[in-house]
Write a structure and sequence with these properties.
407 residues; alpha/beta; three-stranded antiparallel beta sheet; 13 helices; aminotransferase
Length: 407
């Protein structure tokens, strides 16, 4: 493995994927308009709240949560994460390999910042979760986007990945299950990515925050369970599977080939210490969440709320002329495509802006996820069925007007 060290310089990078569209939505709300928000996976605002046993356990322990913890986090929740990795088939993980953070996002930033020097490259999927691109730039590196193939169910293109590996490439980010597409990657594809990482001595960053939000009986394979001769940094947390976005409780697991990554791990330890520790109340929720009743299973079952909303959103969107959608196998999002022959969108941010202005529906444009064309947008299917039907009905009405204007 390449020597791993770190010397970073801050760069001016924005993580705001919404820009003037979100500003417009805020102004409209201040003016008294009610906006249907399909732009962000903030579960609580849609009535999807944390399991009561987690809430009650935090309340009971809150009196003991006033002090700093170990910089990596409390022992008991880290041990619970170790047990969870064992259940996922990941070998060789100890408590020392687990870092607790203020959500997975903080830990993603920490892991990239500890690795990337000026000019280093990290492979990132397109479309991506835009935090990845932002933190690579913030660390002085260069994000290089590999394409996911919509025609293949939004699976990454191995040939495209390999074609973009250079002598400056240090790692590859894999988001599985995927945001924004809802794709779930098969084992043979994961093995193909691992082989590329092995051959080119890359660190694999595996964002698996949606690993329990699975539909139609699908199962998730953790990348780190498939090899022990590649360095894996795996991210997870309570935000989505346990509907606890505001708790900011996440974890990062270092596994696989750690012998040649001592400098890198030392950098992770240093960065963990610099922020003292993650919030203690959030840490207290982790053990109860992982060891308790997994209510997410009820939500994603065929009769569960999330599955029914996914099915309804897919049905309604695909009935609109010129709109196609790959049905998500996981997560909380859809990434619909607008046929350019029917909807000649030159600026998808302006498209989202006009939809908001005319129909009071807030989405995120596809280019906000570093998709190269202006022919996609992302929406969440978290609203209840009545609100979802209303929202997509407004989108359909807006698109009908768009067709009339450009036919």
């Amino acid at each position: 493995m390449k020597p791993i060290a770190k010397s970073s310089k801050l760069a001016s990078v924005s993580y705001d994927i919404r820009g003037p569209v979100l500003d417009k939505a805020r102004q409209m709300e201040e003016d008294g308009h009610k906006i249907i928000k399909l732009n962000i996976g903030n579960t609580a605002v849609f009535g999807l709240t944390p399991p009561d046993e987690i809430v009650q356990d935090m309340i009971r322990n809150l009196g003991d949560a006033g002090g700093y913890t170990d910089s990596k986090g409390l022992f008991a929740p880290r041990k619970a994460v170790v047990h969870y990795t064992q259940q996922k088939g990941v070998k060789g993980v100890t408590v020392d390999d687990v870092y607790l953070g203020n959500g997975a996002s903080e830990l993603i930033q920490m892991s990239i910042n500890a690795l990337v020097n000026d000019g280093d490259e990290i492979l990132i999927p397109a479309p991506d979760f835009p935090l990845y691109t932002a933190v690579v730039g913030l660390s002085g590196g260069r994000p290089v986007h590999y394409l996911c193939d919509e025609g293949a169910g939004w699976l990454p293109d191995l040939a495209d990945i390999e074609s973009k590996i250079s002598p400056r490439t240090r790692g590859i980010m894999v988001c599985n299950p995927n945001n924004p597409t809802g794709a779930l990657y098969p084992t043979d594809l994961l093995l193909g990515i691992i082989e590329l990482a092995r051959r080119h001595q890359l660190v694999v960053f595996a964002d698996e925050i949606y690993d329990k939000t699975l539909y139609d009986g699908h199962t998730h394979t953790s990348m780190a369970s498939l090899a022990d001769d590649v360095l894996f940094i795996t991210f997870n947390g309570l935000s989505k599977n346990y509907r606890a976005c505001g708790y900011r409780a996440g974890w990062m697991v270092v596994s696989g080939e750690k012998r040649h990554a001592r400098d890198y791990i030392e950098g992770l330890n240093m960065l963990a210490s610099l922020r003292l520790c993650s919030n203690t109340p959030g840490q207290l929720a982790i053990q109860t969440a992982l060891g308790g009743y997994q209510s997410i299973d009820d939500l994603v079952a065929p009769t569960g709320r999330l599955c029914r909303q996914r099915d309804l959103a897919y049905e309604l969107l695909t009935q609109i002329p010129g709109v196609s959608v790959v049905k998500p196998k996981a997560a909380l999002y859809m990434f619909p495509r607008l046929d350019p022959k029917i909807y000649p969108v030159a600026d998808d941010q302006d498209f989202a802006y006009q939809l908001l202005a005319e129909e009071k529906v807030l989405i995120v444009q596809g280019t906000g996820f570093n998709w190269p064309a202006h022919d996609h947008f992302r929406l969440v299917f978290l609203p209840n069925v009545d609100d979802l039907r209303e929202a997509i009905g407004r989108i359909e009405r807006f698109l009908a007007g768009y067709r009339r204007r450009y036919s």
